[in-house]
Specification:
single chain; alpha+beta; Glutamine Phosphoribosylpyrophosphate, subunit 1, domain 1; Rossmann fold; six-stranded antiparallel beta sheet; 26 helices; 17 strands
Length: 588
């Protein structure tokens, strides 16, 4: 995990000189181990490195300059199969040992020799900038599922690009809200599902795509190097047991690749199936790893389930009890580092975990994101109405990215409805793909994973930590997508092979527990502990004056919420989140 910043345009970067260097300095939290920049004739490029692979290898410092191909490379992320790629594609060129022991240098040599077709060989998380100074061109490349962030803005035929949106905002100066993104957020609940951000004219590079901008011709070109729709072929297995073996072997190989050799790591734990499987696998390779949990008061605590595998693995997790006062204290800082509205209190809830990880000298954190989407783990994917206890208990609280219970389109201001356009980036229909798989593909490509990875990247990088999600390896995603839906969802539950695999590893109680959704007391806190703060934002003159909502409707809806069972508070969080974001970035 690192951070980079680039500006293209000779006169532009001269005019913005002070802002560029102050913005580059702000980005240092993403990589405090080494910093380097080049102020070239046409481009400024700067890089902050968090040393995880090839820690003492000075040749791996960036920006990297290719003398052979005359380009500069900046790469944020990790290539987890770089040793395998070095053996397969680079050994015959007799490179010195130092080059073959760094994922940065292996990537650079692959691009030099094979061009961008090598992207298909990578198993990793990455955002890449390739700068051609003489040609006045830059290529921006993002990994398959948008795990590593990459933003850009074209202003007066100049380009700003980087690993975080805030430096772009600061250099741009004259920013404005994106009415289309705000309308879509309020009307559908979707965000981070396209290349749009909440800022007008500032974009995110889409997952699996390449953006090329030419300073001379002012042309921008966009192409996909990866398309999830091309990986929908179902494969038949000899037996169900052979399928379980294939899943087990694939997960084990991926996790072994993802484990760092040179730095300490820790795990974000929950009591769910995915987290339990992740911890079980990691501990089969590496003992004495710090395990931490974002804990809440009963009935929101996951201690009961975490203790199940803790006993088996002889581990002592650290539980960080999250209180409302802490969230109130940390909320504004979280917004600064997130840069845009985010999902709820569990995002700042990770702050104590990451502070402690720093104290324990950890540089890498693991989490279990990805299995629900790949192996159909959400009850809403089911096309049948099952009635047993698993399904009855799982459906309670079941929600999706566009759940109508969590949005209030009736509160949207008429002017915003007229001015804005809904942003649609969904996969609507594919031959031979059933409804469950189509929903999961939308979650992976648009609805859930891109926003989740933005939250997790920006939360962890705030404390100079790299978060890794091995279940988002394309090897595991593609494996899940190759399995028939009726093998994944049945009356026994969702993502059934994953549950059966965990049960075989000695954790049946966790494996067959119903899906749990409510992760925090946010619904309660917005009615009680957060009430004064909430009113300061959603009932403020500044919020009313922005032209996004109808004041009389949100007052009515909030009063209705106070007198309800408080099952879904997302729409209230939306309103508060928008106003905090606006005050943080638009007003200042």
């Amino acid at each position: 995990m690192c951070g980079f910043l680039g500006i293209g345009g000779k006169k532009y970067k001269e005019q913005k000189h002070n802002l560029i260097f102050s913005s580059f300095e702000w980005l240092k939290h993403r990589g405090p181990d080494q910093s380097k920049f080049f102020n070239l004739e046409k481009f400024f490029i700067g890089f902050h490195r968090l040393s995880i692979v090839g820690v003492d290898n000075k040749k791996a410092n960036q920006p990297y300059y290719s003398k052979d191909k005359n380009f500069y490379l900046m790469f944020n992320g990790e290539i987890f199969n770089f040793k395998e790629l070095a053996n397969q594609w680079l050994n015959k060129f007799n490179f010195e040992k130092e080059i073959l022991e760094s994922d940065t240098l292996v990537l650079a040599k692959l691009i030099e020799i094979y061009g961008l077709r090598c992207l298909e060989w990578l198993d990793g998380m990455f955002s890449i900038a390739i700068v051609f100074e003489e040609l006045g061109k830059v290529q921006l490349i993002r990994d398959r599922y948008g795990i590593k962030p990459l933003y850009y803005c074209i202003q007066n035929n100049n380009i700003i690009f980087g690993s975080h949106i805030k430096p772009i905002i600061d250099i741009h100066e004259s920013i404005a809200p994106n009415s289309d993104a705000i309308l879509t957020y309020l009307y559908t609940g979707l965000y981070d599902h396209s290349n749009n951000t909440f800022f007008k004219d500032i974009y995110s590079v889409n997952p699996g795509s390449i953006i090329e901008f030419d300073l001379e011709t002012k042309r921008i070109r966009n192409e996909n190097w990866y398309d999830i729709k091309e990986f929908t072929n179902i494969r038949n297995r000899e037996s169900y047991n052979s399928l379980l073996e294939e899943i087990d072997e694939t997960i084990s190989r991926v996790i072994l690749d993802y484990l760092p050799d040179e730095v300490e790591c820790c795990i974000n734990a929950s009591g769910g199936v995915d987290s339990s499987l992740l911890i079980n696998e990691i501990f089969s390779f590496k003992k004495n790893i710090l395990v931490q949990n974002q804990d809440y008061k009963i009935p929101y605590s996951e201690k009961k389930w975490i203790e199940e595998y803790s006993k088996k693995l002889n581990i002592k997790p650290i539980y960080h009890l999250i209180e409302p006062d802490f969230i109130l204290e940390d909320l504004k800082s979280t917004f600064i580092y997130q840069g845009q509205p985010f999902g709820g209190v569990t995002v700042p809830g990770y702050t104590p975990l990451y502070i402690n990880a720093n104290k324990q000298n950890c540089k890498v954190i693991f989490d279990g994101t990805g299995l629900d989407e790949a192996f159909l783990g959400y009850p809403r994917y089911a096309s049948k109405n099952f009635t047993n206890n698993f399904w009855k208990n799982s459906i309670i609280g079941s929600s999706g990215p566009t759940d109508h219970r969590g949005i209030r389109p009736n509160a949207i201001n008429t002017n915003l409805l007229k001015k804005g356009n809904l942003i649609n980036s969904s996969i609507d229909e594919l031959d031979g793909v059933d409804h469950a798989r189509l929903m999961s593909m939308n979650d992976i490509a648009h609805y859930k994973i891109p926003r989740t990875t933005r939250f997790t990247d920006h939360s962890s990088s705030r404390f100079s930590l790299e978060l890794r999600s091995p279940f988002l390896s394309h090897k595991i995603i593609h494996l899940g997508m190759s399995i028939e839906s009726n093998l994944l969802i049945s009356d026994k539950g969702t993502k059934l092979p994953i549950r059966d695999l965990l049960a075989k590893k000695g954790l049946p109680m966790v494996a067959y527990a119903p899906k749990r959704y409510v992760q925090s007391p946010q619904n309660e806190w917005l009615a009680k502990e957060f009430r004064d703060m909430l009113k300061n934002y959603i009932f403020s003159d500044s919020f009313y004056s922005r032209g996004w909502i109808k004041p009389e409707v949100i007052k009515e809806e909030y009063n209705l919420y106070l007198n309800s069972s408080k099952e879904n508070s997302f729409y209230i969080w939306q309103w508060m989140s928008l106003e905090i974001w606006a005050r943080t970035f638009l007003d200042n």
